[in-house]
Amino acid sequence: MSASRTERLLNLLIALLNTKYGLRRSELREKVYHDTTSTDVAFGRMFERDKGELRQFGFDVETVMDTGWGSDDPATTRYRIGKESNRLPDVSLTPEECTVLILAAQLWEHAALGSAAVDAVRKLQAAGGLVDAELPTGVQPRIRPAGQAFEDLVAAMHAQHPVRFSYLAGSTGEEQERLVEPWGLGSRFGQWYLVGHDRDRADKRFFRLSRLTSAVTVMDKESFTPPAGFNVRAELAGLAELPVQTAVVDVEKGRLLGLRKRALPVPAGALELGALEFGAHQAGERPRAAGTDRLAVTFRDAETLGEELASYGPRVTVISPPEVAAAVRRRLSAAAAFAARPAPEVAFPETGRAGRPRKRTSEDQLKRMLQLVPFLVHNQGLHISEVAARFGITRKALEDDLRILICSGLPEGYPDDLLDIQWDDDHVFITQDLDLTRPVRFTVDEACALLTGLETLNGLPEIAEGGALESVTLKLMAAAGEEGLKAAALSGPEVAPGNTETLETARAAIVAGAQLHMTYFSPQRDAVTERDVDPLRLYSLDNTWYLEAYCHSANGLRNFRLDRIEALAPNGRPVAATANPADSFPVKLFTPNDDDTVVVVELAPRGTGLADDYYAERTAALPDGGLLAEIRFGSTDWLPMFVAQHGGMVRILQPGAVADASREWLAAALTQYEDSSDRPID
C-alpha cells in the first residue's frame, strides 16, 4: 500500500465519518478518488477493497438504501460510517487496575502481540482511561511466543485462513505436509500447541509448534469458519501429558554438570541385561567410548530432549532410544547443512536496526496515524522526538506520517476542512482533528493481547488476589465486544515460578536493599561459582524466572536464572549505592559490555525471531525471507552450542574463527553417530 493509497484511505475514512446522510459511489469517485479513467467495474473493485481495509481497522461502513422505486439501484446507494459504532467505549480504571493492565500488556515480550498490546494501551491512554501506576517489585512476568511460526499462525487464525506446513509426527517420527484450519493457539506442559482442523485427515488435531519443520504458509485465498464457542484452554485441558521415559547417553568425563545433576549412572551390564528402566534396546547397543560416563536421563518428549542434547555437540552421544538419537542427528545435520551453504554478502542498512520483514507495513502506517491523531489531541505540545519515541518510530517516519495527515480532510474542503497539525518549533500541536479525537475500538490482536495477558496473570497469587484482576478483565471484555470473545482462541503459559522460596528470598532482599551471597551453576562455563550480588529486579520468561543483579565478581549487571541458583542468602551487607537496574523494560537477558564480541549471524526464515530474542543491533532482510543479524555476545565459546541447538535456523558468518569453530563442533558431533567399530572403549 503506497503513501498515495494511505492518503486516499484516510480521506475516504474522514469523508464517510463526516457525512450524516451518506455519500454515493459516484460522489466518492469524483471527490475522494478523483478517478476519471478507470471503468466502473475496476473502480468498484478498488472501492470494495478499500471498504475491506477500513473494516480491518475497526470501521463498519454502513450501506444506506433509499426507499421506494429504484431503491435497489447501486447508483442511489449511499455509504457512511457511524461516529459511535467504531469508537472505543469509555473505560475508567483505578490505579490498582492500571497496574494489573500494564503487567498484562508487558507480558508479550515482542513481536506482533507485543505491538498489539502497546497499541491497545495507547488507545486507552488517548481515551483518558489510564492513570499513573507503579509496578510491584519482583512481579514482571513475560511470555515468549514460539518464534515466527507463532506470528504467522496468529495472523492466519484471526484472518481465518488455512495454513500449510511440514510437521514431524510424534507417533510415527515421519515428516509430513499438513493443511490445517487454525482454530486456536495455547501453551500446555511448557510447549505451544496449535489446535485445528486437519483437512487431509478430516478431523481435529493438536500440533506442537516445536515439531514444525518448515515455515508456515498462509493460504490467504481460502477461508474457514471456526467452531462456535471455541476455547483453546478447554481443548488443551484434555491433552494428556506424555509418559516418562529414559534415555541412555555417554557424557564426556568432567563435563555437562547441569545434565549430570538430573541423571543417574548406568550400572555395568545394565544394557546387556536389557534393564528397561534404563531405556535399553537390546539390538545394536554400542560399548561405552573411552573418556565417557554412561548416564540415564528421564524425559517425556524426544524432540525436547533432542534439542538440549544436540546443543552439547561432541560432549554427549545418545545410545538409546532411537527416537532421541534421531532427533539429535536431525538437528546436527540441518545445522551442518546450513553452515555449508554459500554465504550471502554481509551488508546492513545505514539507518541501523531494520526490523524483521513484515507484511502489511503500510497498513501499519495507517493504523499508527489513526492512533496518532487522538494521542496528539490529548497530549498537546509534546516534543516531536518524544512523540516518535512513544510510537517506536524514527523522527523521519513520524514527520512522513504528519505530512500525510495535514494533506487529508473532507473532500474538496476548504483549509479549515483539513487536519491541522503544526510542529515548526519541534513541539507538536493539533488544532483541527475532524472528529478523530477518540480511538478506534480494539482489533482482534489488541483484544487477544490484553485479555490473554490478564488470564495468564491468574497464575500469580499476589496479582490474582484483591479483585483488581477480575474487575479490569470484566471492563476490557465489555469494551472489546465481539473482538474480546475471540480471545478464547489464544491461551498463554503458566507464569508461576517453580522455586518460590528462592524468589521470595530475592524479593525480600530487593525490598530491604540487602546484598545476597549466591551459589550459581553457569551452563556456559559448565561450572558452579560463588558470588556476591546486589539484587535489583525479578522478571520472567514464561515460568522461567530471572534475577537481575549487580555481580561484584563480574563488576557489572547480570541476569541469573532462579532454577540455576543452588543457594541464596543475605550476606549481612547492604547493596552498593551505585547499583541500578537497566533503564528499560523488558529487561535484556544479555547485558552489553565494552568487551563484547560483535557476531554476524544468518537466520533462516523459521529462525528470524532469534533476532529479537538476542536483541540484534542491526538486521538486514535476505531474498529468501531470512535475515542477517548483528548481535553482541559476552562470550563466543558457547555459540557452537547455540547453532547446534537450533538445528538449521542459524549459522555464524563473522568472525571467521567463530564460524570455523561452529562447523568443527558440528562435524565432531555428527562423527559420534557414525560407525563406532574402530573407536577406543573402556
Key words describing this protein structure:
682 residues; alpha+beta; five-stranded antiparallel sheet; six-stranded mixed sheet; disordered C terminus
Report the oligomer: single chain
> How much helical structure, as a percent, in the residues?
25-40%
So what's the overall shape?
Answer: globular
> What is the C-alpha radius of gyration, as a whole number of Å?
28 Å
The low-confidence runs, each spanning 5 or more residues with pLDDT under 50, are 272-284, 354-360, 676-682
Largest sheet: 6 strands, mixed
Strand runs, count = 25
% residues in beta strands? 15-25%
Beginning-to-end CA distance, first to last residue: 67 Å
Classification by helices and strands: alpha+beta
Number of helices: 21
Residue-averaged pLDDT, rounded? 83
Task: Please give a structural write-up.
- By secondary structure, the protein is an alpha+beta fold.
- The termini are far apart.
- Strands 4, 5, 6, 7, 8 and 16 form a 6-stranded mixed β-sheet that branches. A 5-stranded antiparallel β-sheet has the order 20-19-18-17-21.
- The radius of gyration is 28 Å and the shape is globular.
- The chain is built from 21 helices and 25 strands.
- Helices cover 34% and strands 22% of the residues.
- A hairpin with a 5-residue loop joins strand 23 (618-621) and strand 24.
- The longest helix has 18 residues, at 322-339.
